[in-house]
Task: structure prediction
Amino acid sequence: MGRGRGRGETGNDEKDPAMPKPAPKGDQVTAVIGEVGRWQLEKILIVFIAAAPGLAHIFHAGFITPKQRFWCAQAMDEAGVDIPPPWTVDYPEKNTSYTVYPGMGNLTTEKKLMGHCIPGCMDYDFDHSFWVATMITEWDLVCEKSWLKTLAKLLLFTGFALGSFCSGLVSDRYGRKTAIWISSITMVVFGVITSFVPWYPLFVVTWWITGTMAIACYTAAFVWTMEIAAGKWKIYLGMSMNYSWPICRLIIAGLAWGFRDWHWHLRCISALVAVGAVILFWLPESPRWLIARGRMDDAKKVLSDASKKNGMPVEPEQIMLTPPSAAASKGGFLDIMRHPTLRVHVLIMYFNWFTTAFIMYGLALSWQSLTGGLFLNFIIGTILDFPAKTLAMFMVLKVGRKYPYMIGSTITGVMFLLTLFIERDVYPSNWPIVVLALIGNFTTTMCFAILYMYTGELMPTTVRAAGVGSSSLVSKIGGTLSTTVAALADIHPAIPTVIFATMAIISGAITFFVPETMGRKMPETIDDIEIEPLCGKKLPEKAVSEENKPWMMPQEKQGLGLHLSPSAVSLG
Result:
């Protein structure tokens, strides 16, 4: 490849040996830098370090409001006169009453009862034998104030949804690196501020901003990773980003166990994010995005630097790229809904994202009672994450995206249906139901890992981040609503089970109408989607012009050299 580089003046001749030859199944990016090399690995490591730690903010929500025993320290009547202990607390639903004294030595012995709510209590004290400081102890969020911790979490979820969506818009308009950098710096600033704020309303606002930036950073980072490699390496590297989730769950579990103070949890996470924000200085913009936006000189500079790092040096003036048309280089979220075929694909993927998040969070709500303590529950979910995501990677590489998702989602639905036929409280710890729930959680986690790559490959370059971001937004809506549906279990345990099973089976069935993306190039523009039929079957030859066949391999196009679509990646 390096021969004849001294004859740079002949670089416009595609057949001149001075020009790098395209890889057999590459595109104008991988033809210059290869499918994977030292440059890709170094830059993806930077992206991982920058984006992954922020996810710990998401899982921190499970450790900032743990169950904690409490008692009333002081009570007053409406006139402001002290009501001395002991106090009498009635429980009409149990037909019983308790005589309550303050102090840790007088705590209730009932496991499910954390403390007694005393009428007129002005100050609560807490058992600090394990947790030094939590959101609950900071603002006495028990009894009549207990709803405030739920409110804070619900608002945090809206931040996750907004962050996913806005990250896509910013990333597609201003660049992947810009979105990652802005969200990282904002996350550091507000993460530190949140750890010091003394007022609950201000805490909710700063925590919301921190969570919004956490998911925004990861969404943009995932898209950057998807666009930088090709072939099987795109699968390995793209799917490996999913390991960020269980790794960050281990990080926050370790911080929670080691410090047991929510202030220091936030500061430690912010310190990790700050390291990533600094090293982003060495991260270039995605060359695929630069090409899609028509910034050809910037793209050539990035590709030239990458080629030199990968041991196949090419000067910028030797690289020939095909700029997109003026229309193709522009795109936004509304463009997704304006085109019929893409709209159908996206709506189906929205339902899939909603369903998987709906089930995952719904399971999480029931696991706490099935598995015992907070840490045990958390670790079980984390352990299941690793093999589920590994299986997802294997299935995506060897089988594809479409059918593994369909089968996995259907298995999830069947597992839930089977639990309806098992009588509760007959077997020790309801172990058959627990096993089926764990299998359902495993397959759902696998499906969720597949969705990130599947959705990214369906979206054209000009709207890819917006498509993935809006899909992630829909998943956060599903996660939020799952808390409401799970409450139906108080009416009858079978209600949420039937809902989860039905949605999982429907999700698997309608995915049949989405095309398989294995072995195909990622679309460059929305026009590439439009010329594909709904189910991904090949159109008649006369229905599609030669230059617009999205399934055509690069070597089949005559005279292209390095003139390939900016986001075309063969997965063959």
In short: Residues 1-26, 368-372, 536-572 have pLDDT under 50 and may be disordered. Strands lie at 70-75, 87-91, 96-100, 121-126. The CA atoms of residues 519 and 572 lie 4 Å apart.
